[in-house]
Structures are given as structure tokens and as C-alpha cells.
Amino acid sequence: MKTKPTLLLLAGIISLFTTILFVGQYIDPKDGDRAFFIKHRPVFQQYFRSPAAYHRYESVELTLTEKTEESAFQEFIAGTGVLTGNNTFVPAIALIQLTLTLLICGLYLVISKRSIKHWQLASQFLLNIFPTGFAMACICLKDDSTVTLISGLLVVVVNVFIVHLFTLTGITKKQNLVPN
Q1: What's the rounded mean pLDDT across residues 76-105?
Q2: Is residue 32 part of a domain?
Q3: If you ran DSSP here, which 8-state letter would residue 61 be given?
């Protein structure tokens, strides 16, 4: 059975909206590392940090913006156990890869006028979960805009390449050779 590109795009847009609402990043107050996590309720805020942790050695009154950031950090990070080992990195990778799979497959199929089968779509997701996880780990380890840009581009290129391989007609169809 083949999947319609417009349904993939619609599902991709819904998945993108869900990813934006439920996947966030926080800055660890102990060592300053960035990490991805699943939020316990949907909010548009993406980055969470603790201003109080950065001012812990100084006697500084937090501004209103910093107090808002601190309360969001306490609610989403400290209050949910994310810092104490409740690791939600893997579900965040899966949600991001689901969004990438649906959007890239949908766009590629609309542009190329090809089709993809359900098993190929599932294989696309499973094959690309590892490069996406590796890229997200690189982004977390080296918190730099260049690394983020290069890792993101590589993930997109790998996703497009695998969709292209799956949709090649010469690989999936047998040619009938009739002897003369």
C-alpha cells in the first residue's frame, strides 16, 4: 500500500507543532551543558535555564524576567526530575525524527511525483533515528551554532538521500526481459 504525499505533509505539520510544544532544551546549572527533554505539558518556550544558579555566588536580586525564567526552570526541569536522572533524551530524538521523516518524505514525494510504501516509510524512520541521535548528541556536547548548523544539515541530507534510495523505481521494480 502506498502513502499519499499530502497526508504525509499534513501529518508532518501536526508532528512539527507537537515537537515544538513538547520538546525543549535546558542548560544544566552544574556544568552548563545543554540537553534535550520532553516537557510535561505543552508550552512554546524552548530554552530553560536557571538564572539563580548563575548568581549563586553573588547577592543579586533577580529581575522580573529572570524570576520568570527561574520559575519555568523549577517547574519543567527541577520539579520533574529531569536533572536527577529522569532522562527523556531518547523520546525527544524519536519525536524529532518522526517529524523529519514525515516532512521530508512528504516534500520529496510532492516534488518528485514518486510514491513510497508504508514499510519504506517505517524503514526511513528507523534508519535515520541513529544519525539524528548522534547529531543531537553532538549539538549537546559542543554547544556552538556552527556545530548545530552542520549537524542539522547533515541529518536533513541523510534523510533526503535515504528517501531517494527508497523511491528509485529501478530498485523496486523488476524488469521483464523477453527473449527475442
Answers
A1: 82
A2: no
A3: P
| Position 161, amino acid | F
- Rounded Cα gap, residues 128 and 155, in angstroms: 8
Q: Give a yes or no: residue 153 inside a domain.
A: yes
The phi, psi pair for 65, rounded to 5°, reads -65, -45
**Exposed, middle or buried, 124 (CB in 10 Å: 0-12/13-18/19+)?**
buried
Contacts of 158 (CB under 8 A, 6+ apart): 128, 131
pTM over 0.70: yes
Q: Is residue 138 assigned to a domain?
A: yes
pLDDT of res. 83: 66
Residue 143 lies in a domain: yes
- The alpha helices in the chain, defined as continuous H runs, are 5-22, 51-54, 64-73, 89-112, 118-141, 145-167, 169-172
- Is residue 67 over pLDDT 50? yes
Residues with Cβ < 8 Å from 52, sequence gap 6 or more? 62, 66, 70
Mean pLDDT on 64-85: 75
d(CA 67, CA 97): 34
